[in-house]
Amino acid sequence: MSDPDTPVPAEQREIADEQAYVDVVYGRLEASTQAAQALAREGYARGHVGHEGGLVERDAMVYQASKRIAALNAAHEGLVFGRLDLVDGDKRYIGRIGVRDAEREVLLIDWRAPAAAVFYQATAQDPAGVVRRRVLRSRGATVVGVEDELLDGDNAPADMVVVGEGALLASLSRARDASMHSVVATIQKEQDEAIRAPSRGATTIGGGPGTGKTVVALHRAAYLLYVDRRRFESGGVLVVGPSGVFMNYIERVLPSLGETSVTLRSLGEVVDGVSGRRHDAPAVAAIKGSARMVQLLTRAARAAQPGEPTSFRYFYRDDVLRLDDAALHRLRLQLLSGQQRNRAYGRVQKTLLDALWSQVEGERALEKERDEFDKVLTSDDAFLDFAAAWWPPLDAVDVWESLGDPDTLRRHAEGVLKRAEIDLLASAWRSADTGSSSGAPSIEDVPLIDELRYLLGEVPPDDADDDPYDVKQMMSFEREESAVRKQRATQSIEDDSYAHVLVDEAQDLSPMQWRMLGRRGKYASWTIVGDPAQSSWPYPDEAAAARAAALDGKDEHYFRLSTNYRNSAEIYDLAADVARVAIPGADTPDAVRRTGEEPRHVAVSPDEVWPAVRTGVRELAAQVEGTIAVVVPAERRVEATAELAEELDDLDRLRVLDGLDTKGLEFDAVLVVEPDEVVAEAESGWRTLYVVLTRATQLLLTVGSTRRWLDRVEA
């Protein structure tokens, strides 16, 4: 039991005072939650009043109540994180959402509100009326610490307490876990300027590794929803990242900032109904990502599809009517003139009838005239079956799958790709088994499928009831195949557009990926995050042209973040040397903290690599409390998972990744296996190694059977 006469340390007194205030705010949060739940119950009750108006009221009330409950629940963790003590003696508390007391007085200011901007913008050089800025550190609803910055000592009261080493540096040293966390409490001035940039046009956030580009961009999405909710919530905000691993990493940030109405997609999941989870080999990815693929895909979308009939013969009265392959080719060109294939679907029967009627010469047939001719043929299964087989509505996935046939691919690629590229693409398609109905697309295939969606178009609404996969007379195996095709079919292109598009790791986008995103952001504002030095796309000029086309002349605002908060200076000094050796013009920001822990490099014989890696993992685990990544060349990932099976079982904070999958992530410790192989696996290998080295926040270890990369860096 504590002695009542023992003085309470100043920091504990401050924490206790803040806890009392936080308890009041959480009390109001609970009251707001109960009010929203009551509104939801009332809404459901309106559905029983017995008329249509009651159902409309129910839906509106339940929708609004559900949104409010979701926002309140999402903001519960670390609700109150900041306090400002102003020159005039006023105090402002800053939080994830705004909260008022029962008299409508402000208890907590939403971090996105103009009144909260000074929390991020005030500096010791320009305090903007702020004497002390305080960050509250919490676990759930419990305040566990405070960190202060005295910005205006001349106006500070004599009894003002200043606690801690500063919120930013304190946050940098804490262990990472498997998710990215909001930095809303520690945003710096240059970051805040990017967050609050004008919403129109395209805002580009650049800077080297560790400068907080991603988390700043996510805070910007939350800020835009706050300042213009009607526009961005109704039109939608799309956040696109490089991989599923990355999207899982960031998925909790926006809800923690009070936003739950944002669509998060990896590049392999941008197209509804299609999912790509694996990368193609770099050389294959470079071909599929090239803008030249547009011409190849255009040919595929306009060509006759496998299995379509090449002739038709019909006996009408005294005439034998024929459509051979050449005639059908001419009709195909006629239907496709200035129109997408599926949009022409409704004109197919009439076009065929016109061509057949032009051959009618017999007196008996001519006596009946054209109306009778049309009526006879459109009542005949032979004609209807031919028309349906010759011009079925096509789904983009089906056409993409047809390219898995080497002969089809070569026919469409002739004169578009080099012969060696065609051979490589055909080989890769076969080895991935994507030329069959069971094959799954790669991440690089998804933009190709999207391109085909727009090249094919959609069946006109008037024909929407005509099921292209009619099952009335199908055999059982045909019905099963039809069901699979319907399940895979992509959704309407009418649903693709958004009000705002945020794309991270934009330096990696291929021209085809820029085209895919450009369709989603044609009428949108954009936030673009990237660093050219970290690019894995080998042809930057081609990508730049596609980027310009996607933005379509929108005004651009550029912000550069200059301080590396992620890496220790010891780690980033090595990474910056890699950048300077191999990446001309690399943006190398300043690292702000030192740990005294230099990167370590272990060189062993090839047989000793995995034992050395296992030893290294155990040593790193003993030194850091947070996450550890073992980064391997892409071809060694399966091998690494097997070699480290015991460590993966024992350490749930251990991850095995290849270089591309580390994009946008960070770990307390990183162990790089065979760095020279990482460099050699693609044209962009040095850039990938640079990215990998900058994922480590505290400790970095490399293990390899060669050290050519290090010799070059140290030369």
TrEMBL record:
Residues 186-568 form the UvrD-like helicase ATP-binding domain. InterPro entries: DNA_helicase_UvrD/REP, P-loop_NTPase, UvrD-like_ATP-bd. Keywords: ATP-binding, Helicase, Hydrolase, Nucleotide-binding. ATP binds at residues 207-214. It holds the Pfam family AAA_19. PANTHER family: DNA 3'-5' HELICASE (PTHR11070:SF45), UVRD / RECB / PCRA DNA HELICASE FAMILY MEMBER (PTHR11070). This is HelD family protein.
